[in-house]
Design a protein that fits this description.
Layout (H helix, E strand, L loop, with lengths): L15 H12 L3 H33 L5 H44 L4 H4 L4 H43 L1 H48 L1 H6 L3 H53 L5 H13 L1 H29 L25 E8 L9 E8 L3 E6 L6 H8 L7 E6 L2 E2 L5 H6 L1 E4 L10 H5 L8 H10 L3 H6 L17 H14 L4 E5 L7 H15 L3 E5 L11 E6 L2 E6 L1 H7 L1 H11 L5
Parallel strand pairs: 3-8, 3-9, 6-7, 7-8
Antiparallel strand pairs: 1-2, 1-4, 4-5, 9-10
Bound molecules: adenosine-5'-triphosphate.
Adenosine-5'-triphosphate binds next to helix 11.
Organism: Streptomyces shaanxiensis
InterPro entries: AAA+_ATPase (IPR003593), ABC1_TM_dom (IPR011527), ABC1_TM_sf (IPR036640), ABC_transporter-like_ATP-bd (IPR003439), ABC_transporter-like_CS (IPR017871), P-loop_NTPase (IPR027417), Type_1_exporter (IPR039421)
Pfam family, one: ABC_membrane
Length: about 600
């Protein structure tokens, strides 16, 4: 079950190698665009380097009285071109960054709907949503700017160091010594940025989880007077996000000031050592001045390198959280076409279902929900599952749909183990109405054809009439095209159930699974639906879970379940005679004497 305030805190963060590998996988498809962005940045930087030289030439010509028109034009062209190239490079990088985010979102969304149900139960949907929306956004900076900053910063740094080495190796040694010392200290805080960012992103996930919890049960929250408590829950998560965001900002400020501090300290050290070397005549004063100028030139590449590492730390946190979703196991891809009923193909008739000594538990450590469950449903007709709450009736359907796999024994459809079926084909044979008859946001028509998008208007009209939804359609302002609200909130519970049944019937399944599908219907509608189901059962295998025995007394066979076991199988008349639990249920519900 999904808990509202427990995102996956047990997930291990990725190692640095794994993070870089994952980052490489995001950037690789866009390597040429990143290279182009890098080239533009380098050209822009080179243009910046040439400008002082051009300015110097201009001043020299002015001083010697030569014409400056040519050089002025050259300088203007240099400025305009440099700026244009830089702007183009920035655009290429932004576009690439957006493409990286899009690719990550597409991968995640593609996986989310294919997750195994057991995996989907591990992360609350709100947290999953925040990984798709918020965490992917953090990939933007790390995937392009960090890469380009690291490369341009490194090139400029090395170029400056080479020139400084020519000027004076001793002063270069002093400079690098100070930079390494300050850089080493700054490196210590870098993992703190990743940690704080990860906690902050977790808290953002908790905000989504909290909102999903309370907005998903909006009426219950209001009716329970729980608005303030729920608001406080979400606020607490928002405060946690703020706290960790501020912590990350603090460490970023520390790291961000390191570049300037390193250069300033190096300046003082070079001044002291260089001054002594000038005094002792080892180097001329002009060398010291040139060296100091280059030292200040270093500020930019060093700050770019620090920026790159900082963005990398933020991105690493996001990559870890995204990778956690990518590690969750998915069902083997069932192409959409496979999962839809094959209209027009040779219909092989009703499906048969057999459970052979099935044992099942939802997770290791939990008690068994099924123990040696065996029964057989040979083909068309109605089979009902009855028994106390928690007996394992709905779990029978979950195993047939292969939402979960049996821990022991075999579940067979058409004589074939469901594990050997192509998942798409298996599900395309089944129509399933789950217990709380979900209706999706959208129009009534979208809901009805959800499981059979190719259904004809005639088929739709026929199903509407049979499920008594035609009067509802007439009443709605835009008929079939009326929006039904979030989870069908603008409909009654009984209408939602009838829509869910109509949807399943429209799919023309070979096997129809109805889990408490008529529990909210009034007597008239229930009778009508009972007729529809009886009609469908003539050509289809229909399995129903029912609490109200009145709805299933006419079933071809009734499977009585209790505490994960099958107690008895028979018709209503047989079971009233042979099974005490069933007889008791019949006595209380049908007012017939228990034997
Ligand atoms: N996803 C799940 N994870 C863990 N346990 C579960 C899960 N779903 C159901 N269970 C447990 O398995 C047992 C059987 O559940 P199941 O829904 O099959 O019972 P049921 O007979 O259909 O009950 P009801 O008539 O109340 O719907 C229950 O004890 C339930 O708590």
């Amino acid at each position: 079950m999904n808990t509202a305030s427990a995102p996956m805190t047990d997930e291990p963060s990725l190692s640095a190698r794994e993070t870089i590998k994952a980052l490489g996988a995001y950037v690789r498809p866009h390597r040429w665009a990143v290279a182009l962005g890098l080239l533009c940045a380098l050209v822009g930087a080179a243009g910046g380097l040439l400008q002082p030289l051009a300015t110097k030439a201009l001043v020299d010509r002015l001083a010697s009285g030569e014409t400056i028109a040519g050089i002025l034009i050259a300088l203007t062209v240099l400025v305009v071109l440099g700026t244009a190239v830089e702007a183009f490079g920035a655009y290429v990088l932004e576009r690439t960054a957006e493409s990286v985010v899009l690719a990550a979102r597409r991968t995640l969304v593609g996986r989310l709907l294919r997750l195994r149900i057991s995996e989907w139960e591990r992360i609350p949907p709100g947290d999953l949503m925040s990984r798709v929306t918020s965490d992917t956004t953090l990939l933007r900076a790390v995937s392009t700017h960090a890469v380009v900053s690291a490369a341009t910063g490194a090139v400029a740094f090395v170029a400056a160091v080479v020139v400084m080495a020519f000027l004076d190796v001793v002063l270069l040694g002093v400079t690098l010594g100070v930079i390494v010392l300050v850089g080493g200290a700054a490196a210590l805080v870098m993992p703190q940025i990743a940690r704080a960012t990860e906690r902050s992103q977790e808290a953002v996930g908790e905000i989504s989880v909290g909102l999903e919890r309370s907005l998903g049960a909006f009426r219950t929250v209001k009716a329970s007077g729980a608005e303030e408590r729920e608001t406080a829950r979400v606020e607490a998560a928002a405060r946690r996000a703020w706290r960790h965001g501020v912590k990350s900002a603090k460490w970023e400020a520390v790291a961000g000031s390191a570049d300037e501090l390193a250069v300033q300290l190096a300046f003082l050290a070079v001044l002291a050592v260089g001054g002594a070397r000038v005094a002792s005549g080892e180097i001329p004063v002009s060398t010291l001045i040139a060296f100091l100028l280059y030292l200040f030139y270093l500020i930019e590449p060093v700050s770019k390198l620090v920026d790159a590492v900082t963005s990398y730390q933020e991105g690493a946190a996001a990559i870890s959280r995204i990778a956690a979703v990518e590690r969750l196991s998915t069902e083997s891809p069932a192409r959409q076409a496979d999962a839809l009923p094959r209209q027009g193909t040779a219909a092989p008739g009703p499906a048969s279902v057999r459970f052979e000594d099935v044992s099942f538990r939802y997770r290791p450590g939990l008690p068994y929900t099924h123990q040696q469950v065996s029964f057989e449903v040979p083909g068309a007709g109605m089979t009902a599952f009855v028994g106390p709450s928690g007996a394992g009736k709905s779990t029978v359907f979950a195993l047939i749909e292969r939402f979960y796999e049996a821990t022991g024994g075999r579940v067979l459809v058409d004589g074939e183990d469901v594990r050997d079926w192509c998942l798409g084909e298996l599900r395309s044979a089944i129509g399933y109405v789950e217990q709380d008859a979900p209706v999706l946001a959208g129009t009534l028509r979208e809901n009805l054809v959800f499981a059979a998008p190719g259904a004809t208007d005639d088929a739709l009209r026929d199903v509407l009439a049979r499920t008594k939804l035609d009067t509802l359609v007439e009443r709605l302002p835009h008929g079939l095209d009326t929006p039904v609200g979030h989870r069908g909130s603008k409909l009654s519970g009984g209408e939602r159930q009838r829509i869910a049944i109509a949807r399943a019937v429209l799919r023309k399944p070979r096997l129809l699974l109805l889990d408490e599908a008529t529990s909210q219907l009034d007597a008239v509608n229930e009778l009508a639906l009972r007729d529809v189901i009886a009609d469908v059962a003539r050509e289809t295998t229909v399995l129903v879970v029912a609490h109200r025995l009145s709805t299933v007394t006419g079933a071809d066979r009734i499977v009585v379940m209790d505490a994960g076991r099958v107690r008895a199988v028979g018709t209503h008349e047989e079971l009233v005679d042979q099974d005490r639990l069933y007889a008791r249920l019949a006595a209380t519900q049908l007012l017939a004497p228990a034997r």
